[in-house]
Amino acid sequence: MRRTSAVIGTAVATLAFLAPAGMAVAAPAETSYTVVPYENVKVRQLPTKNSAYLATLTAGSSYTAYCWTHGQSISDHGITNDIWISFADGYSSAVYFKGNQYGNLPASAEC
What single-letter DSSP state applies at residue 48? Predict the structure, then answer.
């Protein structure tokens, strides 16, 4: 079982996820970034909208992300891209995060 902490205001919420049997889960990179979704967003097991649902990130709260990767293209609110933000245990589309096309991660933070 892996645990990830999400900073919500001054509190820290700990989420626990189980990786499916036989699926390797990469350890978080040493460098981390703070990201903020502008609406509630789902965390998925893989960078696709049909992948297993793991959790929901709350709009306006800060979360720790490690890198970004290319995945399924998502279109919403007039924005389309294939960038997915990687958290300790899953991915969310960068379309739903404040900042640049990478959800405010630097372009160099590719997984």
Answer: S
Residue 35 and residue 86 in contact, taking contact as beta carbons nearer than 8 Å: no
Class of domain 28-111: mainly beta
Farthest CA pair distance, the chain: 38
Place of tokens 């300790």: 88
* 48's tokens: 């696709």
Q: What is the pLDDT of residues 31-46, one digit of tens each?
A: 899 999 999 999 999 9
Output the six-digit token pair for 60. 């306006």
With 0-12 CB in 10 A as exposed, 13-18 as middle and 19+ as buried, what is 45? middle
Closest of 59, 93, 95 to residue 79, by C-alpha: 95
* Residue 26 burial class via C-beta count within 10 angstroms: exposed 0-12, middle 13-18, buried 19 and up: exposed
pLDDT band at residue 80, thresholds of 50, 70 and 90?
Answer: very high
Among candidates 108, 49, 105, which has minimal Cα distance to 73? 49
